[in-house]
Design goal:
With 256 residues, this protein is an alpha/beta fold. It contains 9 helices and 10 strands. Strand 1 and strand 2 form a beta hairpin.
Length: 256
């Protein structure tokens, strides 16, 4: 594989006529039916769709957890749809930052050690610079006082902050967030969305899968799937984004 860092042509990823079919018993299920869209570097995209729309299948493709039946997924100068399993594992550990609804932290590890997990998967000893970067990322997400805490000692919002820091440790092409606020209360949801907005304003590319309209309105753009096809791809105006943020704050439950 070529070094992708300076060969992206301004795109974090590009989905080209992607199709995915599954054979279940004697029936062929067409989960994706020719989906195409681009994600420019620095974009913030929310992917939506009802159950059965192909949203989860697309998430698996973008995360290089599965390969399409046909079509392409370009990360930098590489079409990952043509790669073998070992190459896909390298892509996952080096070019994509994952944030999950259930956090997926390792209970026996500290905050800093959880942030470093993607580096462990590369099979190399951690450099001093990587160790310092992990600590700096923990501080950046507001966990400077909890570096040695384990997940059971953290709130849900704090655990998701660890997951976000972990997603950044490899300086990925994009952060892929799967329902990242699904397990959080409204106040903590707002904190996490503000953190995503801060990261995006700093130039980070974010692809967020959600079923919540109020969450999707915070993104710069919404891609909606239906029946395995791209139903529409729309920009959110700054006014829409600001109104959604104001609504969330104005309707925040009063702390007792």
């Amino acid at each position: 594989m070529s070094n992708p860092k300076f060969e992206t042509d301004g795109f974090a990823c590009r989905v080209v006529d992607m199709k995915k079919e599954y054979v279940l018993k004697s029936e062929t299920v067409r989960a994706l039916r020719g989906v195409s869209f681009d994600v420019p570097e620095g974009d913030y995209v929310a992917i939506m769709g009802p159950s059965g729309s192909g949203k989860s299948t697309l998430l698996n493709m973008l995360g290089c957890l599965d390969k399409p039946t046909s079509g392409s997924l370009w990360l930098g100068s590489d079409d990952v749809a043509t790669m073998n399993d070992d190459q896909l594992a390298d892509i996952r550990s080096q070019r994509i930052g994952f944030v999950f609804q259930s956090y997926n932290l390792i209970q026996q590890l500290t905050v800093v050690e959880n942030i470093q997990v993607p580096l462990f998967y590369q099979g190399k000893s951690l450099s001093k610079a990587q160790q310092l970067r992990s600590i700096e990322l923990a501080r950046m997400v507001g966990l400077a006082e909890r570096l040695d805490h384990r997940p059971t000692q953290l709130s849900g919002g704090q655990q998701q902050r660890v997951a976000i820091a972990r997603s950044l440790v490899n300086d990925p092409f994009f952060i892929l967030a799967d329902e990242p606020t699904g397990n959080l209360d409204s106040r903590t949801t707002e904190e996490i969305l503000q953190l995503f907005e801060k990261l995006n304003n700093e130039g980070r590319t974010i692809i967020l899968v959600t079923h919540e309209d109020e969450v999707s309105k915070r993104a710069k753009r919404v891609v909606r799937l239906k029946d395995g096809r791209l139903q529409w791809d729309r920009q959110n105006s700054q006014e829409v984004r600001e109104a959604a943020a104001k609504y969330a704050i104005d309707n925040m439950p009063v702390e007792v």
